Amino acid sequence: MRHPIVSIAVLSGFVMLAGCDQQMNDEEVERAVAGVNVVDESNLNDIMLTVGDPDEAVAYFRRAVQQQPDRIDLQRGLAKSLIRAGHATEAAKAWTVVANSGEGTAEDRVDLADAQIRAGDWAIAKAELNKVPPTHETFKRYKLEAMVADSEEDWKRSDSFYETAVGLTTQPASTLNNWGYSKLTRGDFAGAERLFGEALSYDDGLFTAKNNLVMARGAQGKYELPVVQMGQVERAQLLHTMALSAIKRGDLVMGRTLLQEAIDTHPQHFEEAVRAMRALESNVANG
């Protein structure tokens, strides 16, 4: 709310100077005011990309791009705001304009590949990543490379890229979780368990990693919940996951015991666990 006040105050100063100094003509006043507007616009752009409502940010940058289509910084802002708003396909189109412009950077092309992956265009994303110079060694670039390798089941390249990505960030929890899930899908349950545990050592509130850790343990027949921070609702949900893992392995008695514990633990009615229990009992009754 302070920006308009600052602009008016500074503008008043310029008008006063114009009145006192006959040598400052109208064109010079307009240039001075334009300089103030650029500062205010830059601040507003930053606000829209960080704390602004995602849909409002999209609308703001759409208008800005329509008014000044040659401004790549505004097109970049539109692409970022579309990602924040969850419009990956549109974001990919916007990033394509930015990356292929004369002002496009290697990071812009990485962001383009990210949008394409979010939109499910894995082959196109791989082609874009191949255009990124090898000297552009960033966490995001290698994380995306690992995800593309996963999609192709190229596990050797996947492990290599994940390892590099983890080494390039101080907050590797989500990447370690992704790497662990990669191990889980290829049947390396012990390796997955280790990576999920490591992810939680960086972020003990990451529920996805807790749930994946329980799945990795359950796949190995380890039916005790891991020693991790959890609330009552989380405990019930993790017991439910463990129960489904046991049932999948054919350990029906253990599965029923865990489902009952999940139902008893949850502070409210746990519909998913109740449905699973009914389905299990129905299957047992029907032989």
Automatic annotation (TrEMBL):
TPR repeats lie at residues 38-71. This is Tetratricopeptide repeat protein. It comes from the Bacteria. InterPro entries: TPR_rpt. Keywords: TPR repeat.
